[in-house]
Amino acid sequence: MRYGFVIDHNRCIGCHACTVACKEEHNVPLGVYRTWVKYIEKGEFPDTKRYFGVLRCNHCDHAPCIEICPTAALFRRQDGIVDFDSERCIGCKSCMQACPYDALYIDPGSQTAAKCNFCAHRVEAGLEPACVIVCPEQAIVAGDLDDRAGKIAAIVAQEKVRVRKPEKGTAPKLFYVGIDADLLQPARVAAQPAFLWAEKKPAQGLRARPSGSPAPAPAGAAREVYDVAHPAPWGAKIAAYLWTKSIAAGALLVAAVALALGFEDAKGLLHAVAPAVALLFTAVTSLLLIFDLKRPERFYYLLTKPNLKSWLVLGGYLLVLYGAVASGWLLGALMYGFVPPAVIGSAGVLAAAVACYTAFLFRQAKGRDLWLSPLLFWHLLFQAAAAGAAVLLLCALGLGAGPFVTAALGKALAFALAGNLSLILLEVYVAPHTEEGKQALDLLTRGPWKKAFWIGAVGMGAALPLALLIGSGFAGEGIPAYLAPPVLALAGLWIFEHLWVRAGQAVPLS
Ligand code: SF4
């Protein structure tokens, strides 16, 4: 049994009755929607035409929201309906990043994720969903797609049906008849400064256009007329988490590599300061993750109700394990003046894993094409190396370490910055991206954030410190030569993470 919907846009009159019936049935608060009707227009007055699109959860057969949900709050029922359990939800918003269709929202009352659940309680009672019953044009058909004698299976077999973003591989079970193609590809639609009947918040106004430029879309392009708000789920705390995690992982990554290469100078720095930095920033990283939850008091569900396919869970376990090994490293150094090679080796491996697991988490965020970049894994590794070398170099300067130590850390920082810079240029000019990924990248490189990106993240944050380090010939002594590069590198990384998180969410999904 596989329940699904057909929505016939040859019949839909855009009356919003389905939206209202859904709100009534599920007590959906103001400002959020389980189903809504988007309007777009084409042509110039007086030859204009309006098109409607009824949007909601697609009850995907391969639902990325289920895969990423760390507590299995989202699940597929035996009958194919994708349902949710708000009692398990911790409000991490990762499902909103995974869904390519903007189907989920955070309920302002419960602070947990919610979406269309096919009126599962009505289905169980032998009734049809509320939107089906209320539609005055019988434009919405619900039923079992596996029932070959049923109405919905006949429509799907006989009519020309379309689904949203089939290239995402989610196998949606919501089929459209007669829908305009631009309603299925929202990034093609020109944003407007205000909706019909509603003002838009500035954040909503920032939508990528086909050119990727903030200039108005060309005349004749479809333009949005009415839509509902879809604020970006992740903000400054997630950008800060990426930054602090880079430092946490990088500190022991650099220290472990240095010790493995037989670098025995500055034992205090590598044996005691590096694990202390790693522990401090791992703690801050974990706190940022917890306080970004809409239900932070439920964070322990990651342990008690885990979905072991979610990289949010696996990443959480890696952070805990890394913290334990870093503690062992620090204790060994402080209590016995000795850190066993096995501890150093496992800390180095775990540091790389902590740095890079976010690439797998972001791959599960299937809705955000920029984050699906195949280079992200390497970005994260080199960012961690740069952050770790920068922080250790600052610590070395603070502790008055000798020129041999500062020069070695300066070389490590230069190596990591060169890798980082190369990866950024590869990302912008060489790496393959989807159309939506290119639009997000265009926002960074040619759109509203281009100055912050090129001047702040690339120029000041990578190229300039690299040039300063190379220009010094790694022979400079002490603070004058080595203070600026690590400070600039850390500031550039901070800017990069904020831009990356924002741009990834700026291209509309619905
Ligand atoms: Fe619904 Fe989106 Fe999940 Fe698909 S990925 S089942 S559309 S919430």
Commentary on this structure:
The chain is α+β, with helices and mostly antiparallel strands and 510 residues long. The protein is 51% helix and 10% strand. The strands form five sheets. It has a four-stranded mixed β-sheet with strand order 8-1-10-9, covered by helices on one side. A three-stranded antiparallel β-sheet has the order 3-2-13. The protein has a two-stranded antiparallel ribbon with strand order 4-5. β2 (35-42) and β3 (49-56) form a beta hairpin. The longest helix has 27 residues, at 403-429. It is elongated and about 80 Å long.
Question: What would the keywords be for this entry?
Answer:
single chain; 510 residues; alpha+beta; three-stranded antiparallel β-sheet; 19 helices; 51% helix; 10% strand; binds iron/sulfur cluster
Taking pLDDT < 50 over at least 5 consecutive residues as the criterion, the unreliable ranges are 202-216
Q: Which structural class best describes the helix and strand composition?
A: alpha+beta
Q: Mean pLDDT, nearest integer?
A: 93
Number of strands: 13
Rg calculated over all Cα atoms: 26 Å
Percent in helix: 40-55%
What small molecules accompany the polymer chains?
Answer: iron/sulfur cluster
Distance between the amino and carboxyl termini: 28 Å
What is the tally of helical segments?
Answer: 19
Label the overall shape: elongated
Largest sheet: 4 strands, mixed
* Widest beta sheet: strand line-up: 8-1-10-9
Strand content: 5-15%
